[in-house]
Specification:
There is one protein chain. The chain is of the alpha/beta class. The chain has one domain: P-loop containing nucleotide triphosphate hydrolases (Rossmann fold, 3-Layer(aba) Sandwich), CATH 3.40.50.300. About 45% of the residues lie in helices and about 20% in strands. The protein has a 5-stranded parallel β-sheet with strand order 2-7-1-8-9, with helices on both faces. A 4-stranded mixed β-sheet has the order 4-3-6-5, with helices on both faces. A hairpin with a 5-residue loop joins strand 5 and strand 6. Helix 1 crosses helix 7 and helix 5 packs antiparallel against helix 6. The N and C termini lie close together (about 10 Å). It binds guanosine-5'-monophosphate (5GP).
Amino acid sequence: MAESPVVVVTGPSGAGKGTLESVVLARMPELALAISATTRPRRATEENGREYWFIPLEEFERRVREGEFLEWVTYVSGHRYGTLRSEIDRIRGLGKVPLLDLEIEGALHVRDTVDGAVTIFVDAPSFAELERRLRDRATESSGEIHERLELAREQQKQAGEFDHVIVNDDVERAADELQAIVEGALHRV
Ligand code: 5GP
């Protein structure tokens, strides 16, 4: 039987992964976003169960122990983020393909452990642009922005680890590229 695909989108904070994903999800009903669990505080614009499942650390740790996560990491400011196996099952149960938005470590883990994973690195056109986008977003404190920028410098060096790299210079163009990659992956299986 052909392996069932999983699309993984990764890249530094501020590269615009989320925007590209929204465009492609709206265009491709066969794709569905896997909602991760996180211990980071909910932002004012976010809703529990829409961007993330926001859960306390104790619950996150218990669910790790119980093997509920496909992958999980400790990321910026010590917050945990993880992909629940139940999300993958739920999406596949709908006959759809899961789209995972992961930081690099989690993306590499899925690349190495999940058959049928297609990995895509989304980058900003330059470091200056990444910094500008992160500051404009201004959802993080300045300390966290600094931490995310330092991380981004390291992360940009890892682009070559992934199947595809998209430079998000223009949302429409980059979304077309992401859609073409995903369609290519879906038709391969
Ligand atoms: P944010 O706090 O801005 O929502 O997300 C920070 C980073 O966490 C993003 O790069 C996002 O891709 C990553 N992320 C979100 N959910 C998961 C997850 O379930 N696993 C991993 N490894 N990374 C995640």
